[in-house]
Amino acid sequence: MLGEVRSAACIAVGDELLAGDYPDSNSGAIARGLAELGIVVERFVVLGDRKDELESAIYELCARYQLVVCTGGIGPTLDDVTREAAAAAAGVALERNEAVLAELRASYARRACAMPESNERQAWFPRGAQVMPNAVGTAPGFRVWIDGGTLCVLPGPSHEMQDMLRRELLPWLRSTCGQGPGIVRHSFYLLGLPESAFSDRAGEWMARGATPLLGVTAHTGILKVTLLGKGESVEGARAQIAARAAELRARFAEEIYSEDDPRPGAAIVRQLSERGATLAVAESCTGGLVSELLTEVPGASGVFVAGWVSYSNASKVRALGVDPALLERHGAVSREVALALAQGAAERSGADFAVSITGVAGPSGGTPEKPVGLVWFGLWREGRLEAFERRFPPVDRASIRRYAAHTALNLVRLASR
User: Fold this and answer.
1) What are the residues facing 377 on neighbouring strands?
2) What pTM was computed for the model?
3) What does the DSSP assignment read for 131-157?
4) Quick check: 413 and 267 in contact, CB under 8 A?
5) What is the tens place of the pLDDT at every residue in 109-137?
6) Alpha-carbon distance 154 to 44, whole Å?
7) What is the CA radius of gyration of the chain?
């Protein structure tokens, strides 16, 4: 039995993480899962595929923390060294688990192919380890006791790690160490509000000693606001959050678009579906990004009827009927062209709402009159046309495009409420 566990550490393993090829998203997901049990992760460690360094880190962290969760390095190749490092830290040998090996071979047989010889490595575990089955991949995880701490090793691929975390590790921890003091998180997602303006309006709620604790992060126009409640029980923590959440909903009613799904496209699909309305999109500088954010959502076909990427001036004229004189007189990045694009999309699609985007995404192409970051939006709402100008920070091209896409979706959200 682990007994009462209150703190933990996470190790993410992989040379690709240190190279910056991929971010470590696993440790954050583990921390959020452990928080549900009242276990606070106090340390994140990222290491490469080097057995000696990993062995030392595992041993030192298990000596300090009752629980250490490690992800990665249990694949079939020779650079997957986590199982060897764990065995060395525990001072035991690796042993082959015949039941796991048989299941590995059976899984390949079910797919009518022979198991590569290298996959046999995934059936070896430190002596005395408890195996955690992998329901969505080939690499089982395991738990092993090391110098007073418990090391839990999960696969590196995110979908495999998430499944094993929820299916195996968290239930085991809940039954083994029980439910500790309550730690509950609740998130809100907002559009159309700078981080500084949110801070001003939130006021004393953002004080570091506030209960519950409130944090905010900003990314390309989206604010994620997180409430963290702590109590003697989960119920007590939830009660803290409930009161502040009600105040947040009232104070930021116009900006909150979701409390469960960070995708603004999902909010638009849901809102238009409830209203029985449809949407068309005409994109220039965003190059189809708005359409992508909509169509990644299941059910989008019920509301999203058409999209155009009219990148060149000629395509704006040919596909959406923009008057060449408008382009000649005002340029593609202008109020007049944005309105014409929205009208053309609405009339050709028959949609109830249409939004257009035309701007200067950079890094070149800006002028003093039309700098990098300038974007015009056209909005057709059930027969009425409006234009909106935004000047986003002249950062990188990808960020400006995403700022613009999020803004376009927010204009539709506000117009269709």
Assistant:
1) 357, 388
2) 0.75
3) EE--SSSS--EEEEEETTEEEEEE-SS
4) yes
5) 998 888 999 999 999 999 999 999 999 99
6) 15
7) 26
